[in-house]
Amino acid sequence: MKAYLSRFVCLDVESNLRRTAEEAAAAVAAGADLVVFPEAFLHGYTGVADPGAVRAAFAAISAARPAVAFALGSFTEERRNRMTVWRGGREVARYDKVHLFAPNREEALWDPGDRYVAVRFAGATFGLLTCNDVRFPEQARALRLTAHCDALLVVAWWPWRRDHLWRALLQARAIENGVWVIGCCVAACEHAGERFAGAGNYVFDPHGEPVATGDDRTYVLDPARTAGLLVDTVATYREVGDVRVFDSGS
Questions:
Q1: Closest by alpha carbon to 179, among 221, 219, 213, 220?
Q2: pTM attached to this predicted model
């Protein structure tokens, strides 16, 4: 599988919708099976985009290329930070960000989601996460153990100054679960009053090894890289509900 991860620079909504269609076409022409755009890439944190117009654009983009899956980042809808996945002109999955980022007062913008979500595509199952969700290993673990995910797909609006944390968390989720992890972050925002430099894009194989890209956008997910895992963290998992704290005295 070839995954295309956008390095999107967020401008005004009209320009962003036009460039999304152009970039999607270029990604498919380059052989991508999965095309990914980052969190809030159409309107940033505080901008406004009409959900109806967004959905119409997403439907048109995916209808023109029915064999390709499009994970079209997230946009604000029904007071949710909503990630959607499209194929053949229709939405095939939606995920509302569960773990809102308190330092940016996201709770003032959105209500948290109430479920974890995965989607099947091309013989694989992808668990969906948004930005701050990657800090919570229990979400990734639930997707691996319950949904039997082969990969975790994480879209983000993560700052460049904390790129080292973003990269480390993605890599950790790959190692502890023995899955592919795909992280797609906005490259920048040029809104007046909301200028932002985003972290990098990364793909890690189930061993936690980084996957190189030849063009800074396209990554090949080679099944051969899944062989020989040192620890099968599903088969050897043990459920323990008893947690005890011993007080040794003062």
A1: 221
A2: 0.96
